[in-house]
Each structure stands twice: as structure tokens, then as C-alpha cells.
Amino acid sequence: MTIILPDLPYEKYALEPHISAKTLSFHYGKHHNAYVSNLNKLIEETDLKKETLADIIKKTVNNADTIGIFNNAAQVWNHTFYWKSMKPNCGGLPTGDIAAKINADFGGYENFIEQLKNAGLTQFGSGWAWLVMKDNTLEIMKTSNADTPIAHGFKPLLTVDVWEHAYYLDYQNDRGGYLDVFFNNLVNWEFVNSNLV
To answer: Keyword annotations for this protein (predicted)?
Structure first.
């Protein structure tokens, strides 16, 4: 099974003015594509080439001998999930079942968004901020570098990429500004709701 670069769920210019086509061209066309290419080379002569992306991640986590495979596989998975976490003309208050779940588990949207933004701001260096579910309860988590919740038994619902290549061309070192724009203008609540099932 060859791991492929999935199509973006929108045109590269569709998230403007919030995320530029130039950023998406580099982020998707260079970074994401490189993870796909590297992963295929790394698994070419192994039994892992027959596995799904999720299974490759689960079989290589916490193993020093397969760290390169894990990092590239997890980055392919994380980025694919991130693209789906955004949609043009979205963001703002949640809708559907996730809205009630956020109120129940976080005591309201403001508390939820404060915790999620804080996870993104306090992730030292490169990584991700996530809304996940474990044992039917919503949680906020952050992961470093390529790490991903699916490697640790959590069900991801939403992610925001806080590697610098996700925002630096548009926001320079203003990670907080990027996160505000992500939450206010880009979050795809329809996708989040689909992950609750």
C-alpha cells in the first residue's frame, strides 16, 4: 500500500485572508508532501508497507529503531486531519452536538477556547494543540513535534498546527494572533461533529 498525499478539501486560496495561498503552497505542497515521500521510502522494504497509516503509527510509536517512520507517518496523519479541521467562512461558536458537549465538559465555550488557545501558546517549540475525547469526556492536549493522540489511545476531534511553518509567512512570531484567527474564522465544526460519532 502506497501512502498518498490527499487532496486539500479546498483550493489553496480558499482560506484567505486568514491563511494565504503562499502558506498553503509551502505547508501542503512542500512539508506535507515531503512527509509522504519520506514515509514511502522508509517503509518500502518493510512489512509496514502493507499497513494503513494509523496502524503504521501505532506499530512504531515509542520505538527508537522506527522513530523516523513514526515521525513521518504521524506528520502525514496530523496534517491531513488539520486540513479537515479548517473550512472557509467558519469558526466562531460551535454548532451541533459538540456545542452541548463543550458546555457539559468545559462549562462553556469561553473556558474551552481559553484552554485550547493556552495549549497552543504553551507548546514549546513545534507541535500541535488538540481537542480529544477519552472515555466519552472531552479533553485538551498538546503534542510535541510529530506526536499524535491516536498513538496514545485518544480520539482526536480537532487540531491546530503550531509548527512555525503553519503560520510564520502570514503572522511571523505572533502565534497568538494565528490561533485567534483559527478559532474565530476557520474551525470546521461540521468536521468536529463528524468525529464525535
So the answer is: Iron, Metal-binding, Oxidoreductase
Question: How confident is the model over 17-35, as pLDDT tens digits?
Answer: 999 999 999 999 999 999 9
pLDDT of the residue at 1: 64
CA dihedral angle for residue 184, residue 190, residue 194, residue 195, rounded to 10 degrees: -10
DSSP state of 65: G
Q: Which domains does the chain have, with CATH numbers?
A: 21-84 (1.10.287.990), 97-196 (3.55.40.20)
Does 165 carry a binding-site annotation? Answer: yes
Q: Is 27 annotated as a binding residue?
A: yes
Decide: pTM greater than 0.85.
yes
Please indicate if the annotation marks 79 as binding a ligand.
yes
Spatial separation of the C-alpha atoms in residues 22 and 74, rounded to whole Å = 24
Nearest to 176 by CA among 127, 118, 92: 118
